Q: What sequence folds into this?
């Protein structure tokens, strides 16, 4: 179950004090957010989102706390905003419709 690790990631990280002491490269994390997590979120695949999101949140906070330069900081924050949105059940209101039996938008 992904809820406990997700809760820990959301509650323990800050922009200046990440919960981890290392992270994957920023471009890899950005690709994970926009190429995997976001598509899972669009079709309300909470298992897929929950499997990837805790580590990604931890690692993006690491990059936010020590950006290489302004461009990296902007990319980190853009990715972090999308990752946080994926953690909110109502980030896509149509998910309520899907969970009620209506077909997902593609």
A:
């Amino acid at each position: 179950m992904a809820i406990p690790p997700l809760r820990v990631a959301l509650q323990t990280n800050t922009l200046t004090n990440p919960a981890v002491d290392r992270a994957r490269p920023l471009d890899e994390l950005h690709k994970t957010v926009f190429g995997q997590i976001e598509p899972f979120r669009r079709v309300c695949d909470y298992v897929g989102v929950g499997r990837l999101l805790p580590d990604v949140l931890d690692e993006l906070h690491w990059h936010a706390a020590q950006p290489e330069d302004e461009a990296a900081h902007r990319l980190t924050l853009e990715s972090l905003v999308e990752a946080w949105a994926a953690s909110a059940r109502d980030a896509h209101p149509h998910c309520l419709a899907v969970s009620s039996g209506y077909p997902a938008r593609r």
Q: What stands out?
A: The chain has a mean pLDDT of 86.
